[in-house]
Amino acid sequence: MPPDPFFAGPGLDRADHLRADPVAILALLCDGEARELVWDNGAPAIDEQGKLRWGPIVGDPPLFLGFDGPSPRFSSLPDGNAPIDARAHFQLLSQLDAAEAPTFAAALSLANWHRRHGYCSVCGTVTDPNRGGWSRKCGNCGAEHYPRVDPVVIMLAEHDGRLLLGRQPHYPPGRYSALAGFVEPGESIEDAVAREIKEEAGIAVVNVTYLCSQPWPFPSSLMVGAHAEALDDSLTIDTNELDDARWFSREEVVAALDGGPAASFQAPPHSAIARTLLERWVDGLK
Q: Do 159 and 265 fall into the same domain?
């Protein structure tokens, strides 16, 4: 069976029961086993083995990430205000140990949220980290704000044994991937899948089924993988969204995943849930 999507997994013990106890968190900072995440160029730093780098506690880091065994893990907020762009860091992801990916995703998403949400959305006052960094509290109106996660559907549409894949303008030459789009307010996952495929490729689908999900920390999305059956294969491509979209046979998908010279397209990277969806489809796991 193909592995779970990159970034998926338990990661650290998040110890939610301690977040509302600032005295306990302060005591953990003095624990001899406590470690602080090292940041490099706005992203969690990794060593030559792809492991996250941790150092001694410096000052009073505002983010309590949880426990790695008996060791409390904390993080400061990296310098800079711009969220990290996934396209600029795929090389970093290719070096990251898969077991470290859940903690990388949690730390980066949380840091990105703090950098983007420093003001109260109720009264506009500057807010302060709260609950070990898992919320922000407004000292003026008392509103408490929690990290947001944006749901994104990413889906395979199938017709007569072939898959619909598309390419966006920023993709490397030859790459095709699953279609995707944000879930809109008042919309179910199934409805979002059908709407996005209709908007981007002009086809109607039925029998939408959930496959798997992936946290995506650029800046903080939840990718919801799905499969749908297309009612026909006649495409009307929205060129504002896609450069191209095509139907690919199982043999073409297998060749792309193998990455050999016979491949008719370049498959998504291992860090992308789209690759997991293709691997599961090839293995008949829908």
A: yes
